[in-house]
């Protein structure tokens, strides 16, 4: 390995360490309560080191959002290849819930943590977030061509479907389903989504 290669790898590792530390702190303390200094303390470097990689805390947040949506998009990519749009929609909704259960910290940061994200999106290319939603909208539009959600605009139908699964995910991630046995909550959420999907399929029959 050359000196240049080693330095590049060290930079990549440092950037990853900063992002991981920030993700943990945002999840534990909330975005508003975390400073660059606090992130630096967690990785045992000076704040000046953080600024070599990120302009400010918002830039760190944006990278974490993009990484979260990249993970979601990657998980959904194979499901998006299913030819039948109704079955594809069912699979995409299931994949979304599985992502939330597998990556609760990313999910919380992406969809529930109070952040200045709208301000960031206006000034940066939010590539993976837009691609993930377009994937859903494309599938919904194909379902509409088959007769589903015919009286609803594509954007509204997509938002409603997304919101339904998000509700299940957020109840579990924010521990709002404590009236249910903790060991069964994930499976109950999957069963609830299966019921929702079955109704979709029945409507399309």
Structural summary, described in words:
The chain is mainly alpha-helical. Helices cover 75% and strands 0% of the residues. It contains ten helices and no strands. Helix 5 crosses helix 6, helix 5 (85-102) packs antiparallel against helix 8 (127-145) and helix 8 crosses helix 9 (154-173). The longest helix is centred in the first third of the chain and has 27 residues, at 3-29.
Tell me the CATH superfamily of the largest domain. Tetracycline Repressor, domain 2
Distance between the termini: 60 Å
Tell me the Rg in angstroms: 20 Å
% residues in beta strands: under 5%
Q: pLDDT under 50 segments (min length 5)? A: none
| CATH second-level architecture of the largest domain | Orthogonal Bundle
Cα shape: globular
Task: Characterize the main sheet.
Answer: none
Number of strands: 0
**What percent of residues adopt helix (DSSP H or I)?**
over 70%
Order of helices and strands: HHHHHHHHHH
* Helix-strand category: mainly alpha
Count of individual helical segments = 10
The fold-level CATH name of the largest domain is Tetracycline Repressor, domain 2
The CATH class of the largest domain is Mainly Alpha
What is the mean pLDDT?
Answer: 88
Q: Care to give the gist of this entry?
A:
This protein has 205 residues and is mostly helical. Helix content is 75%, strand content 0%.
For the structure shown, list the relevant keywords.
single chain, 205 residues, mainly alpha, Arc Repressor Mutant, subunit A, Tetracycline Repressor, domain 2, 2 domains, 10 helices, 0% strand, globular
């Amino acid at each position: 390995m050359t000196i240049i290669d080693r330095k590049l790898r060290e930079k990549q590792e440092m950037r990853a360490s900063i992002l991981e530390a920030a993700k943990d702190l945002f999840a534990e303390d909330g975005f508003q309560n975390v400073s660059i200094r606090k992130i630096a303390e967690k990785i045992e470097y000076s704040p000046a080191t953080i600024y070599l990689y990120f302009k400010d805390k918002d830039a760190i947040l944006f990278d974490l959002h993009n990484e979260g949506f990249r993970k979601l998009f990657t998980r959904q990519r194979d499901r998006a290849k299913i030819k039948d749009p109704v079955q594809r929609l069912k699979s995409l909704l299931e994949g979304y819930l599985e992502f939330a259960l597998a990556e609760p910290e990313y999910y919380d940061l992406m969809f529930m943590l109070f952040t200045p994200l709208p301000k960031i999106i206006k000034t940066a290319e939010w590539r993976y977030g837009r691609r993930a939603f377009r994937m859903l909208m494309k599938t919904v539009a194909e379902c509409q061509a088959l007769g589903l959600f015919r009286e609803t605009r594509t954007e509204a139908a997509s938002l409603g479907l997304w919101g339904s699964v998000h509700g299940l995910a957020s109840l579990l991630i924010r521990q709002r389903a404590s009236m249910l046995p903790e060991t069964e909550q994930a499976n109950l959420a999957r069963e609830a989504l299966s019921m929702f999907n079955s109704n979709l399929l029945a409507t399309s029959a």
